[in-house]
Automatic annotation (TrEMBL):
It is a lipid-anchor. PANTHER family: PROTEIN KINASE DOMAIN-CONTAINING PROTEIN (PTHR45863:SF8), SERINE/THREONINE-PROTEIN KINASE BSK5 (PTHR45863). This is non-specific serine/threonine protein kinase. It is an enzyme of class 2 (transferase). Its EC number is 2.7.11.1. It comes from Actinidia chinensis var. chinensis. Keywords: ATP-binding, Brassinosteroid signaling pathway, Cell membrane, Kinase, Lipoprotein, Membrane, Myristate, Nucleotide-binding, Serine/threonine-protein kinase, Transferase. SUPFAM superfamilies: Protein kinase-like (PK-like), TPR-like. One of its GO terms (biological process) is brassinosteroid mediated signaling pathway. PROSITE patterns: PROTEIN_KINASE_DOM. It is found in: Cell membrane. Residues 59-325 form the Protein kinase domain. Coiled coil: none annotated. GO terms for cellular component: plasma membrane.
């Protein structure tokens, strides 16, 4: 799936914290989502997404679904070397830009290891775009229906069924119970070859339009009757994906059910598998598909039942997905070796930056001459220390407007300015949506401490917020270089 990054205008109110990646353990599989892996959700500028796709070149279209414009997915490359997938819709799909951004931001909070996570959107002029992680190993449709060297092995098909059930269960837990048009094009494979469910399916192609674009033979009966999608419709669509996995081809559910009722269920099985599966396990999946495809929605199982039914059928959990599929694992290479602060700035995670600056405190200025240490105690010193104390408390408590006021007063009182104070005030400006002032302060911090990596990282963050991605990447590289230089000096 393709997704892009663009110039940032924070989706949240300036006084709110940016959305964080959910690092809670997944109750379904006990695994965690690494916060360093997924950038914080943000709003992109259209010019950045256009540049990332070479003007939305037809050569970069990655959608296999056959959907015509304006619902096309492109592969894009950001100036920081990050690949993304971008789905381009139309203004007619979502006339109200605020409603579109709000819907996208809501889906952007639903983070999970089994989802292709949504990392941004764009609602500029007549343009409506969604930006997601890029999945380098194509769709389930490609591996199931259009394979070149070998068919998708049975164990991988079981894993896909299990992982997609886990993804849907997490969406349910996040109160996102409606997934639109679940099919083999919505399942993609990441750099490890693991299957993931596209987050695009959590947002309708149109605010009031159709939720299903596939052949009517695969559409849930209740949608045909009422035009409404209900949670049980998702289970029906999951059943159609099970049919795809079992047969290796598109079989209309009505035809498949006739075969199952006639006790010819094994005739459903993909002949290219050449019997390389346990008949008992295949029979269980056929029965599960039959339950999912019941005409009456109330007769279908729920997602929890699907998970419990499929999980025991996995027999090779220890074998990596890319090995099962015969894929070359695609390494994820950062352009520079970044520290936790550098990574947080690169993914524009303001909350993580705030936490790191709090932990670092003023230790980077130890030994530097500043007006916070006087041999002679004066009332002016007391006033300055109190102002610093109140500023630090406000910064700690995320009262960023008050922090700016106190730090501004402190700067005017100090004869030798503090780089840390400028760094903290820079982040405070970013938190209230004033990146120009943040950039000014980050540059002042560099004047105070010429080789302080934090000042370069903060400049990178402000430049990204201003849509200056190339300059931001240069600053990230400079910060990383000074950090490496400092570490080498410690070793020597």
């Amino acid at each position: 799936m393709g997704c892009f990054q663009s110039k940032t205008a924070s989706v949240q109110s300036p006084d709110q914290e940016p959305s964080q990646i959910d690092s809670k353990a997944d109750p379904g599989n006990g695994e965690q989502l690494d916060q360093d892996q997924v950038p914080a959700f943000k709003e992109f500028g259209f010019a950045v997404l256009r540049a990332a796709t070479n003007g939305f070149s037809s050569e970069l279209i990655v959608s296999e679904s056959g959907e015509k414009a304006p619902n096309v997915v492109y592969k894009g490359k950001l100036r920081n070397n990050g690949f993304v997938a971008i789905k381009r819709l139309s203004k007619q799909s979502w006339p109200d830009p605020q409603q579109f951004v709000a819907e996208a931001a809501g889906v952007g909070k639903v983070r999970h290891k089994r989802l292709v996570n949504l990392i941004g959107c764009c609602a500029e002029g007549d343009e409506r775009l969604l930006v997601a992680e890029y999945m380098p190993h194509d769709t389930l449709s490609k591996h199931l229906f259009h394979w070149d060297k070998r068919p998708l092995p049975w164990e991988m098909r079981v894993r896909i069924a299990c992982y997609i059930a886990q993804a849907l269960d997490h969406c349910n837990a996040e109160n996102r119970k409606i997934y639109h048009d679940l099919n083999a094009y919505r399942v993609l494979f990441d750099e490890d070859g693991d299957p993931r469910l596209s987050s695009f399916g959590l947002i309708k192609n149109s605010r009031d339009g159709k939720s299903y674009s596939t052949n009517l033979a695969y559409t849930p009966p209740e949608f045909l009757r009422t035009g409404r999608v209900i949670p049980e419709s998702v289970v029906y669509s999951y059943g159609t994906v099970l049919l795809d996995l079992l047969s290796g081809k598109h079989i209309p559910p009505s035809h498949a059910l006739d075969m199952i009722r006639g006790k010819n269920d094994l005739l459903l099985m993909d002949s290219s598998l050449e019997g390389q599966y346990a008949v008992e396990d295949a029979t269980k999946l056929v029965e599960l598909a039959s339950k999912c495809l019941q005409y009456e929605a109330r007769d279908r199982p729920d997602i929890k039942f699907l998970m419990s039914a499929v999980a025991p059928l996995q027999k090779q959990k220890e074998v990596a997905s890319h090995v099962l599929m015969g894929l070359m694992k695609t390494p994820v290479v950062l352009p520079t070796m970044l520290s936790p602060l550098g990574k947080a700035c690169a993914r524009m995670d303001l909350t993580a930056v705030h936490d790191i600056l709090l932990k670092t405190g003023y230790k980077d200025e130890e030994g530097a001459e500043n007006e916070l240490s006087f041999q002679e105690w004066t009332q002016q010193v007391q006033d300055m220390l109190n102002t610093k104390k109140f500023g630090d408390i406000a910064f700690r408590d995320k009262d960023f407007k008050s922090a700016i006021d106190y730090y501004s007063k402190l700067v005017s009182m100090m004869s030798v300015p503090s780089g840390t104070v400028f760094g903290r005030r820079a982040l405070s400006y970013l938190m209230i949506g004033q990146p120009e002032l943040a950039l000014r302060d980050a540059m002042q911090a560099q004047v105070c401490l010429p080789e302080w990596p934090t000042s370069f990282y903060m400049q990178a963050l402000a430049l990204s917020k201003l849509g200056m991605e190339t300059d931001a990447q240069d600053m990230l590289n400079d910060g990383a270089s000074f950090e490496a230089k400092k570490q080498n000096s410690w070793r020597n």
